[in-house]
Amino acid sequence: MKVIVVANQKGGVGKSTIACNLAVNFAVQKKNVLLIDTDIQESSISFRSMRQSDDIKSISIKTPTIHKDIGSFKNFDIVIVDAGGRDDTVFRSAILSATYGILIVPTLPSVYDLWATEDTLKIIQDARVYQDIKAYILINQVIKANIVKDTEESLIELVEKYNIGLLKTSIYSRVVYRNCIKEGKGVIEMLDKKAKEEMEQLTNEITNISN
Q1: Which residues, in sequence order, are CB contacts of 29 under 8 Å at separation 6+?
Q2: Please, are residues 28 and 124 in contact by the beta-carbon 8 Å criterion?
Q3: What backbone torsions phi and psi does residue 145 show, to the nearest 5 degrees?
Q4: Statement: residue 40 has pLDDT above 90
Q5: Phi first, then psi: what are they for 56, rounded to 5°?
Q6: Does the pTM exceed 0.90?
Q7: pLDDT tens profile 48-95
Q8: Is 98 exposed, middle or buried (0-12, 13-18, 19+ CB in 10 A)?
Q9: For 148, what's the count of Cα atoms within 13 Å in the CB-facing half-sphere?
Q10: Which of 39, 116, 32 is nearest to 78 (CA)?
Q11: How many angstroms separate the Cα of 185 from the Cα of each of 7, 49, 76, 103, 126?
Q12: What's the pLDDT at 146?
């Protein structure tokens, strides 16, 4: 069993979109996938309800027992935890469950979003007192190929300050990401070649670093 926690307190960073697309990619690889939604908005649960294929299982956990319960899902190859919302015991429990795999923190490529993401990085830092957690920042919804200088500088500062990895893969802002979720599909099942390639690259990178 590999656990991938996708988490950020900051809303609007595409957390659920990333979690659902990863779930689809692994399901297409014939992996037995469980998608755990801890957010009160239940975006991942809604996605699963719209998906026609039964290749992904999903549950909602809104109690601070995720890090304790995660070990009971060993019959799954991949467990993806979609965690967001305010700093509470449920969110921190989801962070701790990443000790069984890796933690991905999506953020937008702006200074303001990086500053907001720092709150989540502080929680990861607190959690590392109890558990060894491998965490990585994912730059999501990139509009331009080059991140502006002040954003890049802030990103480097955060990576060094909190001992956080930075994924090589970046996800670009594409309409297909919004459309696929509404259809209960992953971008790998859509017609946008570039979106398929970057999501496959992300899936492969996460697979490699979680081994």
Answers
A1: none
A2: no
A3: -65, -35
A4: no
A5: -130, 130
A6: yes
A7: 999 999 999 999 999 999 999 999 999 999 999 999 878 899 999 999
A8: buried
A9: 9
A10: 32
A11: 21, 11, 20, 23, 36
A12: 57
Q: How far apart are CA 44 and CA 33, in angstroms?
A: 13
Burial class (CB in 10 A: 0-12, 13-18, 19+), 53: exposed
Contact in structure between 82 and 44 (CB atoms under 8 Å): yes
d(CA 65, CA 51) in angstroms, rounded, equals 27
CA distance 60 to 39: 8
Report yes or no: 82 and 36 within 8 Å, Cβ to Cβ.
yes
- Residue 159's pLDDT band, with cuts at 50, 70 and 90, is very high
Measured CA to CA, the distance from residue 118 to residue 12 in angstroms comes to 15
CB 201 within 8 A of CB 171: no
Reduce the secondary structure of the chain to three states and give it as a string: CEEEEEEECCCCCCHHHHHHHHHHHHHHCCCCEEEEECCCCCHHHHHHHHCCCCCEEEEECCCCCHHHHHHHHCCCCEEEEEEECCCCHHHHHHHHHHHHEEEEEEECCCHHHHHHHHHHHHHHHHHCCCCCCEEEEEECCECCCCCCHHHHHHHHHHHHHHCCEECCCCCECCHHHHHHHHCCCCHHHCCCHHHHHHHHHHHHHHHHHHC
Longest dimension (CA), the chain: 45
